[in-house]
C-alpha cells in the first residue's frame, strides 16, 4: 500500500514504463513560425495557431490598448461585478460572426465543454447524450459532471447514431447529440447537415465543438456548424489568443449564464484577452487567401504522407495525422523529425486509442509549399 506520496511515485513509474509519462518541455516562439527548443530552431507543425495570429501586431496592440484602459484583470466573476461593457460588446460580435441570437465568453474551451451539459441537464433531467466516440476529453468531462446516460456512437457513423437514438434514446425524456466539426486528433470533419437532419428526426438537440474549425474553415472562417443548437469554439487556436465562446439561442445562453458553473463561478475573462479576440474578429473574416493557402498545403501534405504509406485518417483540415501505431516508434520518429528541424505533435494514449499513436502535423498560413516538401522528405528519412 504505502503512503499517498509513494502511490503517486508508483503511478508515475508505471506511466514511464509504458512510455506514457509526459514532460513539460519549453518551446519558445521565434521568428517565421519557428520555435526554440534547447539549442534547436524547429519549424512548428505542432501548434494550433493556424493563421499565425498570436504574434499579429493588431492583436498585440489591441491587447495592450485594452489593458491600459481596463487593467490586467476583470476582478470578479461575470454575475458579481466582472461584466464589463467590453464583454457584452464582444459577445454581440461573436453572435454576429456565428450567426446566432446570442453568445457567451468562457475562460477556456475545456471549461465551456465541461459546463454546457450539466447546465442543460438542469433544464432537461434524464436527458440521454449521444457522443461521437472521438469527441474531446472536455465533453466527456461534461457528461461525467452531469451524470448523464451517455451512448458513444462509432466515429462519424450516422447509421450507428440513428440506431442508438431509436433504441434506448427513444424512451429518454430528451436527447442530445455531441460532435466536433473538425476532430482534433484525426482532422476529419463531421457532416453537420446530416447530423442536423438526424437530430430533427429524433427531436434531439445538436451540440458542436468548433475548436479547430473557428477561423480556419467555413465561410468567413466562421466554422462549419451553422444550424446546430449549441456551438462552442475556442479563441486559443486559429483566433490567436485564449478563451472560448458558446453561441446559441438567447434562452440557451441565459440558461448557461444562470446554471453553467464554469461560467458562474469563474472570474470573467481579462481585458488583454478580450482585446486580442476583438482584433482577431476584425481580421479573420477577410483571411480567405490564408484559408485557401492552408487548404492547398493540406492537400500536398496528405498526398505526400499517403505516398509514404501513412494513414491520414480522412483528414480534411489543417490537422493532418500520420498514424504510426506504437508509442515507442511514434516518439522515436517525432524526435528524428526534430533532429531535422521540424516539430510535429507526437500523440499517444489516452489522447488517442491504443495502437493508433501518431504524428499530428498542423498547418499554418506561414508555411510554404517548400516547407511541406522538406517535411515530407524528413518524414521519409525518419521512418
Ligand atoms: N475542444 C477541442 C476539440 C479541443 O481540441 C480543445 C483544445 N485542446 C478544447 C476543446 C479545449 O479548449 P481550450 O484549450 O480553450 O481549453
Automatic annotation (TrEMBL):
Superkingdom of origin: Bacteria
InterPro entries linked to this entry: Aminotrans_II_pyridoxalP_BS, Aminotransferase_I/II_large, AON_synthase_class-II, PyrdxlP-dep_Trfase, PyrdxlP-dep_Trfase_major, PyrdxlP-dep_Trfase_small
Cross-referenced PANTHER family: 8-AMINO-7-OXONONANOATE SYNTHASE, CLASS II AMINOTRANSFERASE/8-AMINO-7-OXONONANOATE SYNTHASE
EC number(s) per entry: 2.3.1.47
Complex and partners: Homodimer.
Species in which this protein is naturally found: Novosphingobium marinum
Pathway linked to the protein: Cofactor biosynthesis; biotin biosynthesis
Keywords noted in UniProt: Acyltransferase, Biotin biosynthesis, Pyridoxal phosphate, Transferase
Secreted among keywords: no
Record GO biological process: biotin biosynthetic process
Keyword Acyltransferase attached: yes
Reaction(s) catalysed by this chain's protein: 6-carboxyhexanoyl-[ACP] + L-alanine + H(+) = (8S)-8-amino-7-oxononanoate + holo-[ACP] + CO2
Cofactors (names): pyridoxal 5'-phosphate
Domain Aminotransferase class I/classII large: 42-378
Similarity remark: Belongs to the class-II pyridoxal-phosphate-dependent aminotransferase family. BioF subfamily.
Top EC class of this enzyme: transferase
GO terms assigned for molecular function: 8-amino-7-oxononanoate synthase activity; pyridoxal phosphate binding
Pfam families associated with the record: Aminotran_1_2 (PF00155)
Protein name (record): 8-amino-7-oxononanoate synthase
